[in-house]
Write a structure and sequence with these properties.
Elements (H helix, E strand, L loop, with lengths): L1 H4 L3 E4 L3 E5 L8 E3 L5 E5 L5 E5 L15 E4 L3 E9 L5 H21 L7 E12 L4 E4 L8 H10 L2 E4 L2 E4 L1
Parallel strand pairs: 4-11, 7-8, 8-10
Antiparallel strand pairs: 1-5, 2-3, 2-4, 5-6, 6-7, 8-9
Length: about 170
């Protein structure tokens, strides 16, 4: 794993960018106009973008989250899902499992260091009419999902389509 980290990581200095899912067999990528997950960098430091699915891990590996973004202090695991709102429960559970597997693998390989950990399940519905993504604001109703994630993985879980680095 560690020998592939460098080839799958990009340094981004822009203050504002988006992450989009590359689809089947293609890694997530950065966009500067529109995308499924929005990142704002209010620091004077680079943000690192790691393509996990279909780059760090190949298609024969177990399911993993789409990407990871990080700086010196924080690491964020991101799973992107473009779904129909009625499929929220199944997609939410699947996304959570993909993130969990990635975090566990990073722990086993000693990649996490001493960073604050965050996980983002980003659920969107693509609007073909205007080409934009509309966030699905629904969240799990049982708060134990968030507490369990924090206790087991030492990671804060968010259902959100944005991350702001301060």
């Amino acid at each position: 794993m560690k020998n592939r980290l460098e080839e799958c990581t990009d340094s981004i200095t822009e203050k504002h960018f988006f992450i989009e899912d590359g689809g089947d067999q293609e890694p997530a990528f950065i966009s500067f106009e529109n995308g499924e997950f929005e990142v704002t960098n209010n620091t004077n430091n680079s943000i690192y973008f790691l393509r996990t699915d279909s780059c760090l891990y190949n298609s024969k590996d177990p399911k993993r989250c789409d990407s990871v973004i990080y700086n010196d202090n924080t690491i964020c695991f991101i799973e992107l899902k473009c779904i129909k709102p009625k499929n929220f429960a199944d997609n939410s559970q699947n996304a959570k499992e993909q993130i969990e597997e990635t975090i566990i693998d990073f722990q086993e390989h000693g990649v996490l260091q001493d960073k604050n950990r965050e996980a983002f399940i980003s659920l969107n519905c693509h609007k073909k009419k205007n080409g934009c993504y509309e966030p699905i604001t629904k969240r799990p109703t049982n708060s134990h999902v968030f507490a369990d994630f924090k206790i087991r993985l030492n990671t804060k879980l968010y259902y959100d389509t944005k991350k702001e680095f301060n």
